[in-house]
Amino acid sequence: MTAQLNPRGDVAVLVPAAGAGVRLGPGRPKALRLLAGEPLLVHAVRRLAEARSVHTIVVAAPVAEVDAVRELLAPVAPVSVVPGGAERQASVAAALAAVPAGPEIILVHDAARALTPPSLVEAVAAAVRAGRPAVIPVLPVVDTIKEVDAGEVVLGTVDRSALRAVQTPQGFLRSVLTSAHTAAGDPLTDDAGLVEKQGVPVSCVSGSEYALKITRPFDLALAEHLLASGG
After folding, report:
1. Do the beta carbons of residue 226 and residue 115 sit within 8 Å?
2. Is the CB of residue 90 less than 8 Å from the CB of residue 202?
3. Hey, is 121 helix, strand or coil?
4. DSSP-derived secondary structure letter, 100
């Protein structure tokens, strides 16, 4: 039986958490690396559970860690844990298959974005609820962007006014995400990319600086600082 958080909620959140996290250096799978003494996954799930719209959370864990992750999250929130896949896309599909009947809004959220505030979860869900079939949180690109060739020679400067950095959670109507995964071919880095390939319009909402993705040791140090300063 799939665990439930808020019986009145209309949102299921899928958390692909089976990745190795090579860029963080050697150690446990990325979602289980410690941030301020707790695994990234614990921080992420705790914040998801605080969002009132969330009915169900399904975590796709490393195959060898399913029981350990289930035990780890039991004190945090009612969460269902399923074995993840070798690629992110397979982990999302496995989690999606475990969502019970009921929630028609599906969010996909990276465990590595451990400090994402519940308000962003609600903002994405609200946009889908308002009639947008696919929604992503974004931030403006602030750095100057150069296009370069194979030899690292600059070809030109890209107009950044139309560029956005994409975060999670990404939100979808259940039927839209299910169809996109059914038709999926080569793995893509995010679910919005799968939906785009189906010709479904993807809308944007404002993201959050706290939804940074913890990928490198510097990101982990920055997240530690944010937590220490009350973030």
Report:
1. yes
2. no
3. helix
4. P
Tokens read off for 206: 């404002």
Q: Which of 91, 132, 124 is nearest to 207 (CA)?
A: 124
Domain positions in the chain are 11-228
What value does the CA radius of gyration of the chain take, rounded to a whole number of Å?
17
What is the dihedral sign for C-alpha 130, 134, 113, 144? negative
Q: What is the pLDDT of residue 42?
A: 97
Fold for 11-228, please state it.
Spore Coat Polysaccharide Biosynthesis Protein SpsA; Chain A (3.90.550)
Give residue 2's pLDDT. Answer: 65
Residue pair 211/167 in contact (Cβ under 8 Å)? The answer is yes
CB 96 within 8 A of CB 103: no
For residue 40, the surrounding DSSP H or E stretch is: helix 40-49
Per-residue tokens: 223: 């997240």
Amino acid at 208: S
pTM more than 0.90: yes
